[in-house]
From TrEMBL:
It comes from Pedobacter ginsengiterrae. SUPFAM superfamilies: Pseudouridine synthase. Pfam families: PseudoU_synth_2. This is RluA family pseudouridine synthase. Transmembrane segments: none annotated. CDD domains: PseudoU_synth_RluA_like (cd02869). InterPro entries: PsdUridine_synth_cat_dom_sf (IPR020103), PsdUridine_synth_RluA-like_CS (IPR006224), PsdUridine_synth_RsuA/RluA (IPR006145), RluA_PseudoU_synthase (IPR050188).
Amino acid sequence: MKYPNFKDLILFEDNDFIVINKPPFLASLDERGGSGETNVLRLAKQYSDDAQVCHRLDKETSGALIIAKNPEGYRHASMQFERRKVDKTYHAVVDGHVIFDDLTVDLPILNDGNKNVTIDRAEGKRAETIFNSLKYYKHYTLVECKPITGRMHQIRIHLATQRAAIVGDDMYKGKPVFLSSIKRGYKLTKGEEEQPIMKRFALHARHLVFKGLDDKDIVIDAPYPKDYATLIKLLDKFDA
């Protein structure tokens, strides 16, 4: 993978914080077992010596990610995450025509390490997400997801429980979108194998609001990356 220039990812910067638009396929932190591959934390430390990543996004998830430039900033952001004061909004493209109108999913999540996450009412930790359908296509729906808590895979597994798996999320039985499934008369060249429009699951951290050290709101909007924008454009064109 060609790693991006860190400066090109910056959406906001002041003396205490940097917010980047994290590209897909770039881990937030060192993976367990340390493969030594480049990640957001390593790129950030090259840019600002004391940089710390304040929360994480799954490797395939793109979008707004907060990085503190000093220990005070890190503490300040961490407290806001802990007290659930950070306003986070994600966009997901899901399979099927699903109508969510302020649907609250409140199902406990058990993380047994090893990236294995399940709904477990007895042992799981509380997890709550609010869902709203933003745009309907013939075969898909663009959904706004607001996680109140911050559990691993929370949005992905909560959507799967509603029979609305994120497209391309094979861990939760989400199927990828192929152009042939939405474009009439689409033909492949003989011997060619069709690739999905997006080679990852369609989840993007779109909007973020948190407070700076001066207690003023920092409001972030993260544009869709190229693959996500392409998916939306093709759905608009062929599946509306």
